[in-house]
Design goal:
heterodimer, A: mainly alpha, 11 helices, disordered N terminus, B: alpha/beta
Chain lengths: 281, 242
């Protein structure tokens, strides 16, 4: 070692840093070896199962995969569209319900009750059941086109369920803002309304962004439930291909397409959550 | 004595079973600077919060320029523009820049785009370079000065200051106290709860020693600090001056 050199002390590797680097190399090596072992076991053992050939032919058929992929991707655009027009409705309604539940004006007491009932009701019914009830029930009233469309009523079912969840997320966000913020605003002479709009809500909404991201990932998947009432979105389209080709590969393709969207979205939500936690610690 | 700006008579306040204020009488003249001293829990903060109606009083009168604002049901919103309050923990809005923190209330309440006036306030208190920063980019002393500016931007006649240097690192206390000195020179009516005895002695017109929810002793700073009459005042001052 070049003791007595002119390097400053910050350039030198400390004993602690050297030790930690060595520990990290060791941990990486162990993780690599164990992962490789597990993968090797799967790759060698699964094909030994008696039904493997049949499963591979009906679920992982490369030709079918290539053939149905473009059509399924196109069908997925409908899922994306339904998702896209649901989101603003969900947040608008969710915010309205959250504010209705939080108001203390005695004249608006009915609104508070309505908010509470709304949340209990639509969080308590399974989404798929609501899709059936609203999606078949309301067009059954004999409404004229386009108001008998399953797109509309299927979307309404999703909006009802998810706005109830979002309302609760937003309400918890509003309640998490410390009373001192409200006091500071009120003492400046701001009205209750301006205090909510300019001081409380902007902070509350920011605080619940990660939770809302998770809700959006769940919503994106639940759009597929509309396949039960008519719209030919990706799950429905995959079912059509399955019948046509007598092969389950289209379902696997649909799953892959969903994962391509939901995995990055989930990771992003986790990132936001971690960043928030780091910022607060 | 001219008509008092603030006049309290028989003010009581309880939180659950604990009586925090047990009959406060106090008059504060326009332009007067009153320092409230006393141990934690003696009722200083609660008294300040009763003066602007942030805490409703249980009994008694709080008259602002002769009007009893403690009357149950009294609409306090217009009153709040006339009494500014600054808190120990700054309570800046963390999602807004320093400038927006200050500009919000003038814009929404007074309907005024007070840009020139607000910029002048920032300059006056040495924060002209920090207007666009967010609270978490400012030091504690800077944040507290922004909080003072935020209250001043509503052009209050009276300022209530609730231990505004208690959350600051010792080296940052001076810059905030300097702000108060300048307000005093402007003739602002001020009531401050404080643990800064040297400051109180230096600038206060009157020092009020509070103990267990009552005014135990009051007088000029010279008299209170040099020759306290009551035994509990002596004990309190001995304990903090060491």
């Amino acid at each position: 070692m070049a003791a007595g050199s002119h390097r400053s002390s910050t350039d030198q590797v400390t004993r602690r840093a050297a030790y930690e680097a060595q520990q990290k190399r060791r941990a990486n090596l162990i993780a690599g070896v164990s992962t490789a072992l597990v993968l090797a076991l799967i790759v060698f053992l699964v094909p030994l199962a008696p039904g493997w050939e049949a499963v591979r032919a009906s679920f992982f058929d490369g030709e079918v995969f290539v053939r149905v992929f473009p059509d399924l991707l196109r069908a997925f655009l409908l899922d994306v569209a339904i998702f896209a027009w649901s989101v603003p409705l969900i947040f608008g309604l969710g915010l309205a319900i959250a504010l209705a539940r939080g108001n203390t004006n005695p004249a608006l007491f009915p609104l508070r009750i309505f908010g509470a009932v709304y949340v209990d009701l639509f969080r308590g019914i399974p989404v798929v059941l609501l899709v059936y009830l609203v999606g078949f029930g309301i067009p059954g009233l004999g409404l004229a086109r386009p108001w008998n469309s399953p797109y509309i009523w299927g979307t309404v079912a999703l909006v009802l369920t998810y706005s109830a969840y979002i309302a609760e997320v937003l309400r918890s966000g509003i309640e998490s803002i410390h009373a001192s913020q409200r006091n500071a605003a009120i003492c400046l002479g701001l009205s209750e309304r301006d205090t909510m709009r300019y001081v409380i809500l902007p902070q509350a909404i920011r605080r619940v962004v990660p939770a809302n991201m998770n809700m959006l990932v769940a919503l994106q998947k639940d759009v597929a439930l509309l396949s039960f009432i008519g719209p030919v979105e990706i799950l429905r389209q995959a079912g059509i291909f399955k019948s046509l080709l007598a092969n389950f590969t289209p379902y696997v393709v649909a799953a892959v397409i969903f994962l391509c969207v939901t995995v990055p979205a989930t990771r992003y939500a986790d990132y936001l959550l971690n960043r928030d936690r780091d910022a607060r610690s | 004595m001219p008509d008092p700006r603030l006049s309290l008579r028989g003010v009581t306040k309880s939180f659950d079973d604990v009586q925090v204020l047990r009959g406060i009488d106090m008059d504060i003249a326009p332009g007067e600077m009153v320092c409230l001293i006393g141990a934690s829990g003696s009722g200083k903060s609660t008294l300040l919060r009763c003066m602007n109606g942030l805490e409703p009083v249980d009994n008694g009168e709080v008259r602002l320029d002769g009007v009893d604002i403690a009357e149950p049901g009294f609409d306090l919103t217009p009153i709040r523009q006339r009494i500014g309050i600054v808190f120990q923990s700054f309570n800046l809005f963390p999602h807004m820049t320093a400038y927006d923190n200050v500009a919000l209330a003038p814009r929404r309440v007074l309907g005024e785009d007070a840009r020139a006036r607000i910029e002048a306030l920032f300059s006056r208190f040495g924060l002209a370079d920090h207007m666009k920063k967010y609270p978490d980019q400012l030091s504690g002393g800077q944040q507290q000065r922004v909080a003072v500016i935020r209250a001043l931007a509503m052009r209050p006649q009276t300022m209530l200051l609730d231990e505004i240097t208690s959350a600051l690192d010792p080296e940052l206390v001076g810059e905030v106290l300097d702000v108060l000195r300048r307000l005093r020179d402007d003739g602002m009516t001020m009531v401050l709860a404080t643990h800064e005895m040297a400051f109180a002695r230096d600038v206060a017109d009157r020092v009020v020693f509070m103990d267990q929810g009552v005014v135990a002793e009051e007088g000029t700073p010279e008299r209170i600090f040099s020759a306290p009459e009551r035994e509990r005042t002596q004990r309190f001052l001995a304990s903090i001056l060491r």
